[in-house]
Amino acid sequence: MISIENLSFYYADEKRPALNGIDLEIGDGEFVLVTGASGSGKSSLARCLNGLIPHFYGGRLGGRVTVDGLDVSLHAPKEMATRVGMVFQDPENQLVTADVEREIAFGMENLALPRQEIAKRLEEALDTVGIAALRKRQLHTLSGGEKQKVAIASVLALKPEVLVLDEPTSELDPQGAEEVLATVQRLNDELGMTVVLVEHRLERVVHLVDRLIVLSAGRVIADGRPGQVLERQYDRLCRAGVGIPPLIRLVHGLQERGVPVTGAPLTVKEGRRLLERVYTGIGGFPAVGDARGGAGDPVIETENLWYAYKHPYAALKGIDLSIGRGEFVAVMGRNAAGKTTLVKHFIGLLKPSRGRVRVNGLDIVKTTVAELARHVGYVFQDPNDHLFAETVEEEVATTLRGLGFSDVHRRVGEVLEQFDLTPYARQYPRFLSGGQKQRVALATVLAARPQVLILDEPTRGMDQQLKDYLMRFLCEYRDGGNTVIIVTHDVEMVAEYAQRVILLGEGKIVVDGDRRQVLSRALLFSPQINRVFQGFARLGVPQEILTPEEALQLLRH
Amino acid sequence: MSSGTSYRYQDRDTVVHRLNPFAKLAWVAAVMLLAVIFDHPLYLIMLFLSTLPVIALARAWREWASLMRFMLWMSLAIVLINALVIYQGSHVLLEFTFEIPTLGQPKITLEAIAFGLGMALRLVTIVSAFVALNFTVHPDDMMQAMLKLRLPYKSVLATSMSLRFFPALVDDRERISDVQRTRGMELDRGGLLQRARNGGAVLVPLLSNSLDRAVQIAEAMEARAFGAYKRRTAFSEITLSGWDRLLAVAGLLPLPVGIYLRCLGYGKYRYYPSLQRLDPGMAGWLALAVLAALLLAILPLAWFRKRWQLD
């Protein structure tokens, strides 16, 4: 059992507490989801459970955290390891050795277990997580999801009573995430293991858990059964920047319009059961259409584009497409489908092995990256990769000088103003918060006023507030006649904002069309709301519904 | 180092890969040390050539070629610097009229160039031998071998982890270079100052990402009871059969023989004031042949071991 009494924690040199007056009891066998916006203290709370706080991080800890009767402030993480197993966010940076078996053995070796015991527990751990087939594999050949399962197995081998996972799926694609979560659920269901899962994407996990705890600014602002919390504390969660699953948003919207529905459906099945009555017998639904205009002149054209990193394995196989001015395009597909490979051609980072790519009429083979960068902005996934200068100002100015602009000073001022960064102009960019860094990275790219903006997995790891900010900005930017191209796995975001979806598979275009055609009635790539309404075809409900807002509009007449 | 080459260990399951790490460690140590104690260019060439069949059998050509491209530049730099700084030698190829304080009147001599070439050859041989070891031994096996040699655990772990994360560093560097290129930096163009500045644009994110990674790994290790006890157990230990011991001895054998030959006066070479004749004489050729035979003996032995294992 975990018991937390009046816990507060300050990181060294911080005046504001990361955790503030937390009281919690977590019983044996519970599956608890801890959520909250970035900086709400959810990761810090997880680190208090095995003593990484305060032993590894330092800082000031007040109150008491006991796990299984042991006070964590008196017992170091290496002692807690046999009671609390911890799995971290980044699968790359928590694996110590080079292959699966040795990785799982690592912790047991540290505990100085006899070799026979290690061999026995190794077998158990492999089977419990279901990775026996991977046992001889090298870690770097595994997918992200498989690596996370190895991390889980390596922790289970120490026979902990509690499993703590700190955003274990945020670096994974949807398939990998689903596999990892299914494994965790099985550990809880069948072995009765206590699980504390930290996650900010509720729609992925909320239906799996017994209890939902929401943190904001280091305090617990909601705690209870997930359905109840989401239903009764809806406004509070929204204010705290928690991303609410689309189905819950729909039900809330219906309630606001006076439609008599109660409950908080967490799965598609529950959603259909609850909403069927609402949409029955109405008939004559308005057609769902997009008000958005068509595309302008083409800005990016590819002609029979082939690319191979390593001959003869082609990553792109004959891509033909044309993207016009003013389009908002999402490039989707499984990992290794060729998404990033494709968009890297649009700024000349890769040159076609065969075929042709034109950007604003310029052949990318004959144009340098620097010249193309005046037409095309490319935002990489991790803002940390962008930042190197001494000040935010200098960071932006470097791009402008690199691209050969003359009125650097004026442009820097403008772009900092645009992204609310003027107060930070003279600060060291790497010391800013995650959201601020993201804005600096955007500013460095947009200072050149490119007509095309490419973003690679921009929303991965972002909380709702930052996501909303980015999307608002992208829509404005698009409305100014520019083109946005997003590489993403985030179906819900695409459903809401993109206009055209290009689905890649094995280096070829599988589908390319309006988001409604591509996302509706698909299995893996349908948003939650669409999957609910797929069940209502016989009621005459349009099947192209993708978002809660559209579902609400059906009832407007 | 060119892109596209993965510096990760790949188990290609060749004769060389299957050889036990001690034998390889012994053999590579022998080659490296012999390259240090012998001066004679013919001996160095022989040592260099002896690494090639091992690399060929291990099918590690790609990694080898990519490192060698880099070594070619290094060699050029060594020859150039040596020629420009050392003015000994009797065959003057070029003489300058001005004078540099403390160094004197600069001149380029045949002997200085030859000496630079000799040094470069030595370095290339050592790197080539290193490739034969590093890309054919599983990093964890290497660690086990080091531990068996009674080196302290923490230093061994730190070394093996820095090797393990080297490929990740290469990936990081490539990604960050891409980012900076899209910001108009042309990383391999411009003057020295500009290049240094652009280098910083890659280096700063690279270093601070590495620091973040180090903290995360430390945290993950701590959470898995690292350092809980003074003595930890080892799940897998390298077992050495009689054959493996024999192979390790065979691998190291060229070293004492080489030292003995060197003491007898073989393999010396004089660069200054004028180059000695290359021909080592009848006895010298014989000594060279004996060393070459001993160095290559590891291959048929390894081959035999492989078949013996399969039976």
Describe this structure in words.
- The complex is a heterodimer of chains A (557) and B (311).
- Chain A is an alpha/beta fold.
- Chain A has three domains: 2-239, Rossmann fold (3-Layer(aba) Sandwich); 246-280 and 530-553, no CATH class; 298-527, Rossmann fold, CATH 3.40.50.300.
- Chain A is 36% helix and 22% strand.
- In chain A, strand 11 and strand 12 form a beta hairpin.
- Chain B has a domain at 15-158 and 239-310.
- Chain B is built from 13 helices and two strands, in the order ααααββααααααααα.
- In chain B, strands 1-2 form a two-stranded antiparallel sheet.
- The longest helix of chain B is centred in the middle third of the chain and has 31 residues, at 192-222.
- Chain B is flat.
Summarize the SSE layout with pairings.
The complex is a heterodimer of chains A (557) and B (311).
Chain A: E1 2-10, E2 19-26, E3 31-35, H1 42-48, H2 52-55, E4 60-67, E5 70-71, H3 77-80, E6 84-87, H4 100-110, H5 115-129, H6 144-156, E7 162-166, H7 174-191, E8 194-198, H8 202-205, E9 211-216, E10 219-224, H9 226-232, H10 234-239, H11 246-256, H12 268-279, E11 298-310, E12 313-324, E13 328-332, H13 339-345, E14 354-359, E15 362-363, H14 369-372, E16 376-379, H15 392-402, H16 408-418, H17 434-446, E17 452-456, H18 464-479, E18 483-487, H19 491-497, E19 500-505, E20 508-514, H20 515-519, H21 528-533, H22 548-553
Chain B: H1 15-18, H2 21-37, H3 41-57, H4 61-85, E1 92-95, E2 107-109, H5 110-134, H6 139-148, H7 153-164, H8 166-181, H9 192-222, H10 242-252, H11 254-263, H12 281-296, H13 298-310
Antiparallel strand pairs in B: 1-2
Helix pairs in contact in B: 2-5, 2-10, 2-11, 3-5, 3-12, 4-5, 6-7, 8-9, 10-13, 11-12
